[in-house]
Write a structure and sequence with these properties.
heterodimer; A: 326 residues; alpha/beta; seven-stranded parallel beta sheet; five-stranded parallel beta sheet; 9 helices; 18 strands; 29% helix; elongated; B: 262 residues; 31% strand; globular
Chain lengths: 326, 262
C-alpha cells in the first residue's frame, strides 16, 4: 500500500465513554504525526456517539472518522473489524495505533491479518528514528527484555500499553474535521448476551498499591495490608501465591498472569519478586519492598528495601504514619 | 467434537538467562516446556472430550525438539499431534505463524473448536489466536475465564472494556483462555507410556503444499522484525536497602515517598 503521512488512532469506547487510553494514543500520535509532517486522525465507532467526537479533536486529532451506527452498540468484533479494515484501505495510513486493552488487542489482531500487515503488541515506546523509521518498543520474555521492532508493511500497526504514553491537556479551542462515514453491516455471528460493569477493584488505575505475597501466613492477614492501604489511599494487591490459594480475588493479582500496574508507589510485602511478578509492576515509580530474605530478587528492583518481617514492619509503619498526621 | 489446540514449546522462564552486555536471550540456558497458558487450553479441550466425546489434536510450529512438548500434550489427554517443522517456517512473526498454523488446520479438515492459551511467556503478544481465527474466517472470543458448550453453541464469559461480558457464538469458533479457567492435570506415568506409542506427524513445507503459499511463511512472510533487543537494567533505582535498622527505614520511608499521601 502507498501511504499518505497519516497517523490513525483507534478511539476505544464502551457504552459511550471514551477509554482514556485513546487520549494517550493521541498524545503520542501527535508527536509522531508532527515528526512525519503528517496528519493525526482518529476513528470512532459507536452508537449515538457523535457527541463525544469533538473530545478527540480537543485532545490532539486533526480529523475524526465517525461511524455512528446501532450495530456498534455492542462490542461486535466482526463489524468493528470490517469497518476499520474498510477505512484503512481507503485512507492508507502510515501508522495505525490501538490501545493494548483486551478489546484493542483482539480487534487489532484481526484487522492486521485482514490488511496483511504487521502488528506489534503491547508497546511501551514508539519513536521515529533519525532515518524516519518507525520504531516500536515492547517488552518480551515475560518483561525481561525490550525488543525494538520495525515493520515492512503499511499501515504499521501497534497496540500500546495503557498508562505509558502521555495525553495532551484538553484544549477546547482546537479545531478539526469530523467526517461522517457510512457503516457497512455484516452478519454478526457473535452475540453479547450480557454486559456488567465491574464496580470492583480496578488495580490497573491505582496510584498507590500495597501488595502481599507468600510471606503472608493466612488469608485474614490481608486485613493488615488493608489497614495500611486505607491510610495511604491505596489499593490492595497480591502476587500469585495468595491468589492461587484463594485468599484474595484474581482482580487484585499483579504480575504476568494478572494485572500490569504502574502506580506512583508500590509497596511489596512478603513478595520475593519472581520475574513473573516483576513483569507486572517493575515500571512503578517508587518500589518499596519488605522481605525477611536479603537475597530476594525484589530487592534488586526496589528503591527502598527493608530486610525484615512484614508482621513487624507494617504495624510500625502504620503507627508512624498515624503519628505523622496527628 | 473435534477440538484443535495450538501449543508452543517455550523456555522455562524460571531458568532462562539474559545477557545484558550482549543484548541477547540465551535460550540454551534453560530447559523447555509447554507454554503454561497452553496447558489451560489443553485441559479445557480434554475436559470437553471427556464430557461429550470427540478428539483433541495438538499442533505446534517449531524445531524438531518441540516433539517432546507434543508428547507431553498427548500424555495430558490429547489424541493426536502434529509438528510443523521446516526451515522455511522459522523466524516467523505472529502474522506468518498464524498463517502457517491456519493452513495446517485447514489441512486437518473440519473442526468445531480451536482453543488457545491467552499468550506465550516468551513472545507475550497474545495475538496468534485471534489471527488464526481471522485467517480461517471464523469468530473468536478472547480472554475467556469461563465457558460452556451447548448444542453447537459456545457461551463464554470474558472481560472487555472493564466489563464482564457473556458472549455467545456458533461453532466453529476459536477461544483464547485465561488461567482462571481451570487447573491443568498432570500426566501419570501410564499416560506418558501410552503417549510414547502415538506417532507425532511432522509436516514441512512439502506437506502443506496446496494449503500454504510458502512466501507467507517464516521470515519471508513476516512484516515485523526485531531490530534490536535490550536487556534493561534497574540501575536507575535508588536501591536503599535497610538491614537491622527497621526504625530508621520506617522514618525515611514515612518522611520520603509516603509523605504526601492522604
Amino acid at each position: 500500500m502507498n501511504s499518505t503521512k497519516e497517523v490513525l488512532v483507534f478511539a476505544e469506547q464502551n457504552g459511550g465513554e471514551i477509554h482514556p487510553i485513546s487520549f494517550e494514543l493521541l498524545g503520542k500520535g501527535r508527536e509522531l504525526a508532527d515528526k512525519l509532517g503528517g496528519v493525526l486522525s482518529s476513528v470512532l465507532l459507536g452508537d449515538k456517539i457523535a457527541g463525544v467526537a469533538t473530545e478527540l479533536i480537543y485532545h490532539g486529532a486533526d480529523r475524526v472518522y465517525l461511524y455512528d451506527h446501532v450495530i456498534f452498540h455492542d462490542l461486535d468484533l466482526l463489524n468493528y473489524k470490517h469497518n476499520l479494515v474498510r477505512l484503512a484501505r481507503e485512507i492508507k495510513p502510515e501508522i495505525f495505533l490501538l490501545g493494548a486493552t483486551h478489546w484493542g488487542r483482539s480487534l487489532g489482531a484481526r484487522v492486521a491479518v485482514a490488511l496483511g500487515t504487521g502488528l506489534t503488541a503491547d508497546c511501551t515506546g514508539l519513536e521515529i528514528d533519525r532515518d524516519g523509521n518507525f520504531i516500536q518498543i515492547r517488552p518480551a520474555f515475560s518483561g525481561n527484555v525490550l525488543a525494538h521492532i520495525r515493520t515492512k508493511t503499511k499501515p504499521q500497526m501497534a497496540t500500546v500499553r495503557y498508562k505509558v504514553m502521555r495525553s495532551r491537556p484538553r484544549d477546547v479551542n482546537r479545531k478539526g474535521e469530523i467526517i461522517e462515514k457510512k457503516t457497512e453491516v455484516i452478519p454478526s455471528l457473535l452475540a453479547i448476551a450480557h454486559q456488567e460493569k465491574r464496580d470492583e477493584v480496578n488495580i490497573a488505575e491505582a496510584e498507590v498499591i500495597v501488595s502481599g505475597g507468600a510471606g503472608l501466613k493466612k488469608a485474614e492477614d490481608f486485613s493488615l495490608l488493608a489497614d495500611l492501604a486505607g491510610l495511604l489511599g491505596a489499593t490492595v494487591g497480591a502476587s500469585r501465591p495468595p491468589v492461587d490459594s484463594g485468599w484474595i480475588g484474581r482482580e487484585h493479582q499483579v504480575g504476568f498472569s494478572g494485572n500490569t500496574v504502574k502506580p506512583k508507589i508500590y509497596l511489596a510485602c512478603g513478595i520475593s519478586g519472581s520475574s513473573q511478578h516483576l513483569a507486572g509492576m517493575r515500571e512503578s515509580d517508587v518500589i518499596i519492598a519488605i522481605n525477611t530474605d536479603p537475597s530476594a530478587p525484589i530487592f534488586k528492583v526496589a528503591d527502598y528495601g527493608i530486610v525484615g518481617d512484614l508482621y513487624e514492619v507494617v504495624p510500625k509503619l502504620i503507627t508512624r504514619i498515624k503519628r505523622c498526621r496527628s | 467434537m473435534r477440538i484443535i489446540v495450538p501449543i508452543k514449546q517455550v523456555p522455562d522462564m524460571n531458568q532462562v538467562k539474559f545477557d545484558v552486555a550482549g543484548g541477547r536471550v540465551d535460550r540454551s540456558s534453560a530447559g523447555v516446556e509447554i507454554n503454561p497458558f497452553d496447558l489451560n487450553a489443553l485441559e479445557a479441550a480434554v475436559q470437553i472430550k471427556e464430557n461429550v466425546g470427540g478428539t483433541v489434536t495438538v499442533i505446534s510450529m517449531g524445531p524438531r525438539r518441540a516433539v517432546t512438548s507434543l508428547r507431553d500434550a498427548l500424555a495430558r489427554g490429547a489424541d493426536d499431534a502434529v509438528l510443523l517443522e521446516d526451515r522455511k517456517f522459522a523466524g516467523a512473526d505472529t502474522l506468518a505463524t498464524s498463517y502457517t498454523i491456519a493452513c495446517a488446520i485447514r489441512k486437518l479438515g473440519a473442526f468445531d473448536l480451536i482453543i488457545c492459551g491467552e499468550k506465550t511467556v516468551d513472545g507475550d503478544t497474545g495475538q496468534v489466536g485471534a489471527e488464526i481465527a481471522e485467517h480461517l474466517n471464523i469468530p473468536h472470543i478472547a480472554h475467556v475465564s469461563w465457558f460452556e458448550l451447548s448444542a453447537k453453541k459456545i457461551v463464554a464469559q470474558c472481560e472487555i472494556g472493564g466489563r464482564a461480558c457473556t458472549v455467545e457464538s456458533p461453532v466453529p469458533v476459536l477461544l483464547t483462555l485465561t488461567k482462571d479457567v481451570n487447573i491443568p492435570r498432570l500426566p501419570s506415568f501410564r499416560d506418558k507410556a501410552k503417549a510414547r506409542q502415538v506417532a507425532v506427524e511432522v509436516w514441512g513445507a512439502r506437506e502443506l503444499a496446496g494449503y500454504a503459499d510458502i512466501k507467507w511463511c517464516g521470515v519471508r512472510g513476516s512484516p515485523t522484525r526485531v531490530h534490536r533487543v535490550i536487556i534493561p537494567s534497574d540501575e536507575n533505582r535508588k536501591g536503599r536497602i535497610f538491614r537491622n535498622t527497621i526504625d530508621e527505614a520506617i522514618d525515611e520511608i514515612a518522611a520520603g515517598p509516603l509523605r504526601h499521601l492522604n
